[in-house]
What we know:
Elements: H1 2-23, H2 27-33, H3 43-46, E1 51-52, E2 64-68, E3 80-83, E4 86-91, E5 94-99, E6 105-109, E7 116-121, E8 127-132, E9 139-143, E10 149-153, E11 161-166, E12 173-177, E13 183-188, E14 193-199, E15 205-210, E16 217-222, E17 225-234, E18 237-244, E19 258-260, E20 266-268, E21 275-279, E22 282-288, E23 300-306, E24 309-314, E25 318-323, H4 324-328, E26 338-340, E27 345-348, E28 353-360, E29 369-375, E30 389-395, E31 413-420, E32 427-432, E33 438-443, E34 447-452, E35 458-464, E36 469-474, E37 483-488, E38 492-497, E39 517-521, H5 526-559, H6 565-572, E40 594-599, E41 604-609, E42 616-621, E43 639-642, E44 651-656, E45 662-667, E46 671-676, E47 691-694, E48 703-708, E49 714-719, E50 724-728, H7 732-741, H8 770-812, H9 830-849, H10 851-869, E51 872-874, E52 878-880, E53 887-889, E54 893-894, H11 896-899, H12 906-954, H13 960-992, H14 1002-1014, H15 1036-1086, H16 1117-1131, H17 1137-1175, H18 1182-1308, H19 1315-1323, H20 1338-1358, H21 1384-1451, H22 1485-1545, H23 1551-1555, H24 1561-1629, H25 1637-1669, H26 1694-1711
Parallel strand pairs: 22-26
Antiparallel strand pairs: 1-47, 2-50, 3-4, 4-5, 5-6, 7-8, 8-9, 9-10, 11-12, 12-13, 13-14, 15-16, 16-17, 17-18, 19-20, 20-21, 21-22, 23-24, 24-25, 25-27, 28-29, 30-31, 32-33, 33-34, 34-35, 36-37, 37-38, 38-39, 40-41, 41-42, 42-43, 44-45, 45-46, 46-47, 48-49, 49-50, 51-54, 52-53
Amino acid sequence: MDVSETLRDDLQDQADVLVVEECDGNNEEEHKKLIPHDMYYSYEELCSRPFITADSNIPRNLLHLSHSFGYDCGRRGNLQLLDEHTLAFIAGNLLVLLDVHTKEQCYIRSSSGGGIGAIMTHPSKQYFAVAEKGHQPNIIIYEYPSLRPYRILRGGTGSTYSYVDFNRDGSLLASVGGAPDYMLTLWDWRQEQVTLCNKAFAQDVYRATFSPDCVGQLTTSGSGHIRFWKMASTFTGLKLQGLLGSFGKTTVTDIEGYVELPDGKVVSGSEWGNMLLWEGGLIKVEICRKGRRTCHSGTIYQFNLDEGELLTIGSDGVVRSWNLETIDTADAVDDSGLFETEPMNEITVGRNVSLYSMVKSSIPETSNWFAQLNSAGGLLVVGFDDGVVRLLELYNPQSLHTVAGRTCSGDAELRLRQALKPHNAPVTAIDYERSRKIMATGSADSTVFFFAVGERYEPIGFVTVPGPVQGLEWSPQSHEKNTLLIFCQNGHVVEVQCPDPRAQTGGNTFQLSGLPTMHFCFRSIKSRIKRDAEVALRQARKEKKKKEREERLKKLLEQKPDATEEELQEKEEEEDEEEVELPPLYIPSQPSPLHCGFYSTPGSFWLSMGGYDSGYLYHCKFSEEQSEDPLERKDEPFFFLPVHDTDHNPILTITFNSSRQLLLCGMEDGSIRAYPVQASDQQLSSMQAYWALSVHDNHYGPVSHLRFSFDDMFVLTAGEDGNIFSFSCLPEEELQKAMQLKHAKVPSPRVGLELEKAAQDIEDPSAYSIETAKQKLELDRMHKEAEERKQERRKNLAELQSQFQALLEQNQSLPEHIRLHRSEFELDIRFHEETERQTEERVMEVRKDLAWEEEKHQIGLKKLQTMFWESVVQDTVTVHAFKSGHKISNYRLLALPAIQMHPHQHGPVASQSANLEQEHWRNKAQPGEEASNISLPDELVTDLMIQSGRMQSGSRKLGSREAEKLRKAAEKAEKARAMIEKRKKEWAELYASKPSEDYEDPKDVEAIRLAKEKMGDFKLKSAKDFTVPEHLRMNVDKKRVQLVELEKKIFEKKSEMNSHVMALRDSKVEIVSLLHAKVEQLQAIQQHLPPEKRLPLPAVPVLMQEEMPERKHRYTRATLERYATLRAKLVSTGLDEQQNGENILELLEQEMQDTHTEAQNMHMEDEGVETVSQKQEEELTELEKEKREIEETKNLYQQDKLLKQMEEAVWHFDAELRVLRHEKQELDVYMKMADLRHVTLFEELLLLKEFEKREDILQERLSIYIHEEQEIRAKMHECKKQMEQKKRDILRLQGKEKTLTATFQASLGENNKFEEFLTRVFKKKIKHTKKKENGGEGGNVTDDEDDSDEDSDEESDRDNDEDYDDSETGAPLDDSVCPPNCDPELFDNTLRLREHRLDVEEQLQEEIKNVDSLKKECDTLGKKEKIVQNNRKAAEGDLELINQEKQQRLNEVDVVVPFRLHQIEYVNNNGVLPGKLDSALVLNTADLQRLQKRIKELQEEKTEQRELYKQAKQQHVQLRHDLKDMEARKKESEVRCEQLMLMKFGKLVELEVLQTLSGNRKVEEKRQEVRERDAKNTQELKYWETKVTEAREALTEVTKHNTERLRNLNSLLSQKKALDDQLNSQQRKTVGQFQGRLVEKQELQRLQQLVEAQAQDIEALTDEIRALSRKDGHILPPLDPVPPPVPAPPHRHTASNSDVHRKLNLSSKAVK
């Protein structure tokens, strides 16, 4: 205790010193900044509230938190004790305060809305800390039990807090943040100030606690680390120094729990359950149980010290107590590093329970503990992860008859009624059919099982779906068909017809195969939506630009009516924006996950997708074409609805209330949303405004389920963070009334429930499912049938045995000379088996005797493999060419970590990891910026729509275009005003920034300074006065990075070449196998060829041992036996063991090759024998000989072709090998140079290590000086700032004094006869008395006044010569009394002003004294600064000397640089290469050329600068002349402008007012009305003109058709007349001639036919004319033309001719 108290006093003293230094004489201001102890914040202002869409009229109190049922048992340290009956734990965005006696809950919401990270109770139990999550979260300290926010700690981390802890006396608070900063911060929480901060680690940190016994010590632990911190005192103040724990030989583990022992040691847990005792940053010993059993079966989460015992809480659900003294003094007894001990006591909380933390009750002399545990399967759910569905029965136990030994307590109980296992994977969805007769369950095993609902649930069957089931939705009552909608996680949707409950399947499976199904597979359309939106946005921009261009042209024409088109084009010429290519259509390779959905109309449904397709609700329907494979389907939604702020926060669950007027959505970030909708709105067009509230944890608490109660009074939410919240839809007052009217009652138990046996539960996770059990029964039946068949076979076998016995007897009865011997019937080999068994037993005995030796050699072999084989990434492989003697070998590569020279890589690696981490979070922030840029145009469009809507609603007479013009005119006027103001500000800024006459550009000054410093400074590194630039300074870490990078590049180059060599080896293996196949084909072909035509077979190459080194490690039992035989033979020769082993291996290889050669020769000989046998065949016929010749020719061609292919394959391989060999030779040169570079870098690394310690000391000293200098400069800056303030105060007081004097002079007026007297009174110097504030000090005030009077009297006596005499009486006037005839008010005013003047003078003197003291302080700081600067410069000089010495030593390192002769240009005067090149300089050719080029460039730059100077000088003169001319022109323009104003306006006006004038709205409305009427009349006139035109066109068309028909009729009549005339003439010519009756009859028939055809034509034309005369006439296609009449001789039948004439006349009349 003495030591700790001393350390505490030291820390307090140091803190006081720091406070004094920071205050620096300004204590009064610092005390004013202290936060008073009685200050509190308002909880109503801090707590987060729901988000409501603007102008939505949604009430803020839409949902009220009713109760929290769940518990986040997986969160670390989620249980704190506030007092003896109140527990605190985190539930999502709430802190729940639970009264363990009354079970009442109190809730505190998070202030950020992003969740709560950690909580901790103050040691006094009067406060508790709540560390939140979100962007820049806060730590809020609440007072208990008032629950008022007491303090707010800001800026401790970037995104989340993972742990907080108070120190023992509660004065400090430690907090540790999560990713990305992992910042450890110590707070003076009462003053809301950061005391110390440092980065805790680069990975997750689980805990951070103060040591209860060692003041100033902290411990943090987390992912793969533990760190010990100490608040160390330096001359710059307190600092946090962290020592990272080294695991040494122990496996690195995550540390969840630990405890600090009183002597400073730390005991921590491990992932495997043992305890680790830490001392001095190292593991002293690992503690386990006897027999090397682990202390716990799993991770140890918490340690507690309680009355000399160490309590450990583990994930196995066991609490064990250990002897603290034994643990503290534990030490390893052997090299294993383990210490074995047993616990004093233990208690098992339960099965399948994982303990996370425990807190002890604060009631004195009690041993009650509250535990945070996670019980697997202890939640009250229907579907479980093992596929079991349990039916739990809720009833009122008080209604049961009391059974002996049983007491009924509580309002409700649950009882297992039935347990089913329909699935082999987690149950993900359960839903009842609308008539409650069928229950469906979905699972991750892609099955949906149906059950018939009844007293007992009976299985109906199951269906398989294309993916894991995400949700189930039965069709509502409004749908005609009773169907089930199944949502799969991979985007598939299946609609299944409801099965018949009575149609249970038979056979060996429950699978339903005849149910009608509809399939839908979601195909992404989000990229198309974005593309269409971008197209619409671009089109809107084009229209807007077009309108603006037209308006500008119109205005220009109004301003310049006489402007030409070229001038207008010049004024309007703008660069067209490059049309950015539209984003391509994108469909994710992996389908987006489907989260939820619901029915809209029969066959249609809404889907909510995640991943890339989030941000919308998709309206989909099933296709009528269902013949396609469901797995190959790609269906697209027919409608979509964008949902606000869901691109990265998709909707996971959706539910409606019973009236379908309120839609609730559960989000991925743990929040819930409420959308008011219309009940009949199936398209969800009314889903716009919403109400949102963060409920569950924002990081790992997505809302998995969201449901209304049966009466819509409550809403239940369940999240993946283990919490279940209940919300009421009514305010608390209305809720109480509604609950009284409709209070839910627990149902009474069924009759005879107490007598029923408990239902059998399914506890075994590996139990059979319903389907598996049914298949198992079928399998058992099949096994039974198989066993029966076996019995039948055995019976048959027995019968055969009896028959065999009969045969033996029959054989025995035969004569001896024909009798078979008994051995010939012997088939029993059991004797042989027995011999083998005995041999095997002896072998086993020998193996047992040699087990130790075998184990020893196996361990030795393993070590050798680890040392020489496992470290080898690739062994040497040599590939030989087939014909040439060329060969190529790869590089023998070691694993990269094994070839790194120095194991301590934490410096550069840490810096690289930090850079990578920063780059990661920088990149992580960019998507957010891109998202904001993308969404900006949408917001602009929305704003434009809103503005246009307002304009329409504000003016009914103006059209949208005119209103827009008027609005733009007003906007233009406003812009003009803004432009004028902006121009004024710019002119003011320009004049303010106008440089003085002697101004010089700082850049030019800096460039000149640098040029002077570096002019002509071309020192080499080898020069003694060479100064190493900052960016070229080298240290151990940088050099090590260079070394590692070089090794990596060498490894990559060699690996690349090795891959080429191995590919070449693989190709050789393929070629060898191909050659073997070709040889076999040749052999098969040559069997059909005569010997004289057979070409010799090429020798098939064999892969050498060095080409396949991996075969060295392959062996068989025959190989081992042959090795033993050869070894026994060679041992007798007396060779040594090494030579003996080499000879044995050579003999084995030789035997293998000989065996292969003999096999080939035997194969050839066999083929020769077969050929000879073929020669001895019989003589062939002529046809067979011809056929054989053809076949022989074909075989000869095949033989030549195969030989050519083999030769080409060999040739190509040899060519590839030679090319690769050339490349490897070039790479060998580069690798040798790299090796030389590696040697140089390693030598430099060793050299730098010698300077590392000295350099670090100097660097630390320099950093200290720089820090001190910065502090002094900060103080000087503050001091100068105060001096400036004081000087301003002095000027202010001086001004005040002048004001008082002026006020006095003004009060005297003119010709005041008492002016001299009053002036003397005003300026009289008296001793000024200080006013006292407290009334108790009145006596002192009186004394001071007396003294003042005495002093003033004495002063008056001394100034008698200046007394003023009355002009009338000649008596002197008393300046303390108002003289006669003087205005008393004026005298009193003079005295008052004198008092003010004296106050001002006193303040002025005080300020002058302060300025003097500040000057002295500033001078003192200036002297200190010079001293520190000298020290800093000395340190920099020492560091520079170290760098110079280091550079000189580095210059002494030999560097090998190979040169060719043409690269050496160093020759003597005679042009001969000198013998030594010591004084030569090695330069890169490019650098040398660059330097030579730079000389010319500098000469050119010099010339250019001279020319520029001349031009600038001339330009300066010209500008001065131009300035004078412009001033004269300016005056002329001003005079002319004023004259024009007077001529035009009659007075001078402001042009700015004219520019800011806007249009008259009434005039524009009248103009708009005129334009609308003109447009209406014009439109009506165009309509009637169009109608007239159409009527004329129709009339013209009808006239044309009628004319054409008349022409045809005229033609036919002309033909008829010609025929009549021809007929009459022929009759007249042939009157006397007689012809046969037959010819006459034929001619008559022909003419009759002709007349009939013409009559038909006439009738058809008549009908067409009649049809055309009607409006809706239909024109038939024209008939075939009538052939012309053939002349015939006249006939006597004149009567028929007259009939024809009559018919034609009638037809013509009809036509007319």
